[in-house]
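Researcher: Let's run the pair from yesterday's discussion. Sequence first, then tokens, for each.
Model: Starting with the first of the pair.
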Amino acid sequence: MIVALGVIIPFVGTSLGALLVFFIRGKMNEKIEKILLGFAGGVMVAASVWSLIDPAIELSSEMGKWAFVPSAVGFLIGIGFILLLDSVIPHIHQGSEESEGVKSNFRKTTKMMLAVTIHNIPEGMAVGVVLAGAVYGNSLISLSSALVLAIGIAIQNFPEGAIISMPLYAEGMNKPKSFLLGVLSGVVEPIAALLTIVFVQFVTPILPYILAFAAGAMVYVVVEELIPESQMHSHTNWPTIAFSIGFVLMMILDVALS
């Protein structure tokens, strides 16, 4: 039951955010959008540190002064994995007109959806690997810490759902379809979480590497996408403040509730 909750909670966050398309008329205010991007980035970085890298180092404590190795290796592989996806999958980021990845004839809305999919894969993996560590009896990872991470990702997903559905509506798509696509953009998260849980079952000894892998993947998304998008043009101070608030909120949740 708790595993199911952990997998579904982030998806619910995305769906609730997408629901805003029915309540906000026109295009989302640029300042609000930047604040939401900054907040999401802060949550993801804090989750990467306290929910993933910190446990990975603790799990490797028997290695003594070399306890950093699994985290360092896993982190860099996670960076490389999302870099590979970013280079191969055709997509376009919010606020940009230039496509990335291999050339394709996909519509702009499809490329926007694929950009969010790349973004959501590491978040689903992060929730899945922490849930797996708790389910398979690792004493350093509790179900409560897994749920805290899921809640943190859900909080971060709320603005993401809005950020994908609102531009689709602004591009001329009707509200129900914009909402549906906003919801579907989050489907990859529970799928990635479930696949990670199954995978970890067979490779428990390399759990520290997988934890750090998820952290590296999330940090790549923050640095390559969220921060640049939040700092474009004007209102650059607001997303920086929002990043700090998101970081502190996720840190408090992880430390106080785990």
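Model: Moving on to the second of the pair.
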Amino acid sequence: MKHKVSFLGLGVMGYPMAGYLAKAGHDVTVFNRTAAKAGQWVAEYGGRSAPTPAAAADGCDFVFCCVGNDDDLRAVTTAAEGAFATMAPNAVFVDHTTTSATIARELHAVAAEHGFAFVDAPVSGGQAGAENGQLTVMIGGDAEAVGRAAPLIDCYARMQARLGGSGSGQLAKMVNQICIAGTVQGLSEALHFATRAGLDAAAVVDVISKGAAQSWQMDNRAATMLAGTFDYGFAVDWMRKDLGYVLAEARENGAHLPVTALVDQFYSEVQALGGGRWDTSSLLVPLERMRRRND
């Protein structure tokens, strides 16, 4: 079935995701805070743009969203001109923003009061995953609403799974970020050690990537880390935002995350060096700076 849908937020993730919905034949209306970006999307994919989230959501079967953080999400949902003001009964709001689990539960409850559904569905795969339609989507929400949204999410996902009730998608994304933080720090220390030991670090990576040390980060970031290239990918500022949600949730549920907390501090060092927009693999930079100071 083809549906009337809207997509709120046309950043590096949302722009191609909305494009895949249009390519699948859905009738797509987009909203973006910068209207020129919405106009560019319409010129490329067709459909139409709207001046407010409320106007974009009016009459839609599904409303998708991918913005920056909790405050941005509130601005496009429950604010005066937010989408919740015009959501149709039985419609489904699918939020792909990485947020706190708290706001996911909050908006799920507000949506239920107004007769429509809210699904939290953060993604993993980065800009390349969005552009290639190969995202992994972690979903929380009512099973019926998730089931209705699944065929549309499939337009840009290689994997999607409902992991429980409201907030479960965001909690799963936190697990994802915990894994990534530790892996990138480990890879950074390994490359730093290899260089200090006088090894050809690239050759070492070529060998160990065929064994138990292999990871996505090693396969996709080791070479650029050794080249000192960090001007692409998932930004440090975004990772620190995500780790902030992780550590806040851990304080609530009693989880002990010493490595994650330490890596968050290391990312703050990268920010202090002016690397807030560098790729998360830039954890190598403080180690190399320390080496040069000690030499």
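Researcher: Give me one sentence on the second I can quote.
Model: The longest strand covers residues 157-162.
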